[in-house]
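Morning run. Coffee first, then this:
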Amino acid sequence: MLTAITREPSPSLARCELSFLAREPIDLGKAVAQHQAYEKLLADLGARLIRLPAEPDLPDSMFVEDPALVLDELAVIFPLGASSRRPEAPSLAAALRPFRELQYVTLPGTVEGGDVLRVGRRLFVGLTARSNAEGIAQLARITAPYGYSVLGVPVTGCLHLKSAVTALDAGTLVAHRAWFDTSAFADYEWVDVDPGEPHAGNALPVAGAVLFPAAFPRTRERIEARGFRVRALDISELQKAEAALTCSSLIFDAP
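And here it is:
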């Protein structure tokens, strides 16, 4: 069954980590409402929701994708590159334990799930301030017995690899190609973001639909022109916290 783990935004969301955006006031009530609309759309698309409670002392904890990678055979728990966020991982591990065997990347390796783009049995991992070469090497050793290949991808200009590129299906990527090394992606077709929408490279395919931020209508038109069914969501308040659609859920199949 399609399963999605989410977490309610923290009351301290306004104190979130920011790397590439200037800090703006965040309306918590609006942020919570937008996150609830995101959860409702996942449920409408057939996902069973597992909602974790807010973590008042962990501002970024709604971004449940970062502490863990869920594959078909196992889940890998990460030490996050932002040390202030490392306490987020234990509760995610506890939530995943009923569904997957757990394995761990350990310090000095760091990985954040926002840097891990899975396309089939390939794991493209951004080399960023949050995910380092040691963490990527450990992830490769953990996943190799299950038939996954891991490729490091240098990233510039954005927080995570998936801030710049995500998969629309097994052969098509939506991307702002100026922000990362594209040489590892020779086998894929591209939907390039509109030049006026550089942050539009993050999309979330779920159950035959593509979830996409309402803030990027011109890139949405490009995706729809390729035959994808797009469901637009307003995440404008969450985007002030450097949020994207993939980072607010862990989606996987489970009995």
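The two ends are 6 Å apart (CA to CA). Good start to the day.
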